[in-house]
């Protein structure tokens, strides 16, 4: 608590040198605007007024933010409660049967793990099974349908209620969130990571080392992005980079569907850039792809300021991250002008930018460890299993998963 209060008091000082005052450490309040003609320490009054709204958002966000407990992956438990609340009347065998076409069937029977023989994406199943195999001895008999596709399956508007596990979704879906396979195996396969990102535990260490090598003062004062043209939502940042390369370094890379320069906005594709090399830049952009982006958690570990575009798609750990505390929110469909406005704000308020970057790093480092992923899986399956209205029996069509890497 003392650390949070310390940060908040520090934020008041750096945010509000001209708009607010600190009466003392125990009694802080907003001040009236300074009298006309007072000289500002860093900016003209016009520039200061331009940032008043954004400064207010940062201050309000920090005042409202309550740091979650690191005990028993508590930061993310609310997601489990919310997702399973849709099934408060119980999960029947008929519901499981109806959902089987939406994913891969798993069972844990007598502390042994079983899976349908056919898995649409074997590496994704393997990434999930790493965690399931570790905890099978601590779980009751259960069964569930796990979706390894990129897209969630159970729309609130077009489907009957069915229990399907998916790694990401929007609020328009009933799917039950689980930690993506890419925490251990799989994930986007590109030239730099031909078998997928995978191994979050290793990335945590390599990115921490990179962030230590590129502390805030050494980072380039430029916004950075590399990625394929999955959606046109990324175009304004790419075009802004071409117009103002001193502000943004953003370019499209190839993906599996690339056929010509038309697929990279009429410019030859750029080379891929390792995640560790992202840490050389102060500002990093994250866009959704087909669903939630796998890169978001990695960007935070650079101790750079993350610009997270859009709020529609999320993974299980997203809800615990708070805009203007852990990252700068960018609305979906933001224009070049809107992006430039946000970048100009953080460049002219470096102390604010650094504080948010540090908060984002600290949250992911402390609350998204591998043990938190395992904890989430265990808590999810225990609470889910209590909702089954029957005791599952072994499905003879399934195969036993005997070991994982």
From TrEMBL:
Compartments where located: Endoplasmic reticulum lumen
Pathway: Protein modification; protein glycosylation
Matches recorded under InterPro entries: CAP10, O-Glucosyltr/Glycosyltrsf_90
Signal sequence coordinates: 1-18
Keywords of the record: Glycosyltransferase, Signal, Transferase
Pfam families per record: Glyco_transf_90
Family statement: Belongs to the glycosyltransferase 90 family.
Name of the protein this chain belongs to: O-glucosyltransferase rumi-like protein
Organism for this UniProt entry: Frankliniella fusca
């Amino acid at each position: 608590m003392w650390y949070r209060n310390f940060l908040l008091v520090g934020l008041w000082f750096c945010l509000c040198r001209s708009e607010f005052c600190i009466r003392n450490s125990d009694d802080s309040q907003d001040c009236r605007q300074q009298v006309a003609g007072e000289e500002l320490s860093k900016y003209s009054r016009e520039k200061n007024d331009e940032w008043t709204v954004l400064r207010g958002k940062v201050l309000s966000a920090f005042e409202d933010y309550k740091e979650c407990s690191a005990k028993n992956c508590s930061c993310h438990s609310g997601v489990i409660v919310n997702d399973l609340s849709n099934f408060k009347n119980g999960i029947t065998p008929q519901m499981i049967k109806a959902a089987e076409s939406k994913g891969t069937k798993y069972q844990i029977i007598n502390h042994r793990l079983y899976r349908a023989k056919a898995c649409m994406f074997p590496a994704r199943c393997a990434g999930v099974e790493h965690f399931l195999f570790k905890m099978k001895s601590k779980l009751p008999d259960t069964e569930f349908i796990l979706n390894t596709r990129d897209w969630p399956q159970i729309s609130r508007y077009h489907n009957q209620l069915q229990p399907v596990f998916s790694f990401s979704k929007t609020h328009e879906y009933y799917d039950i969130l689980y930690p993506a396979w890419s925490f251990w195996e799989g994930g986007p396969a590109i030239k730099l990571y031909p078998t997928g990102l995978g191994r979050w535990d290793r990335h945590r260490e390599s990115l921490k080392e990179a962030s230590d090598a590129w502390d805030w003062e050494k980072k380039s004062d430029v916004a950075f992005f590399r990625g394929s043209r999955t959606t046109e939502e990324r175009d304004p940042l790419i075009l802004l980079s071409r117009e103002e390369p001193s502000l943004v370094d953003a370019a499209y890379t190839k993906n599996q569907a690339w056929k010509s320069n038309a697929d990279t906005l009429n410019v030859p594709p750029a080379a891929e850039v390792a995640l560790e090399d992202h840490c050389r830049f102060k500002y990093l952009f994250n866009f959704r792809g087909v669903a939630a982006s796998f890169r978001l958690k990695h960007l935070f570990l650079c101790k750079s300021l993350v610009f997270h575009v859009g709020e529609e798609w999320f993974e299980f750990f997203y809800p615990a991250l708070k805009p203007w505390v852990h990252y700068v929110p960018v609305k979906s469909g933001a224009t070049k002008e809107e992006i430039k406005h946000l970048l100009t704000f953080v460049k002219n308020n470096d102390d604010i930018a650094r504080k948010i970057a540090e908060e984002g790093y600290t949250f992911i480092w402390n609350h998204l460890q591998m043990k938190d992923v395992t904890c989430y899986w265990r808590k999810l399956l225990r609470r889910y299993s209590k909702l089954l209205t029957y005791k599952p029996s072994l499905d003879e069509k399934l195969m036993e998963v005997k070991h994982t890497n």
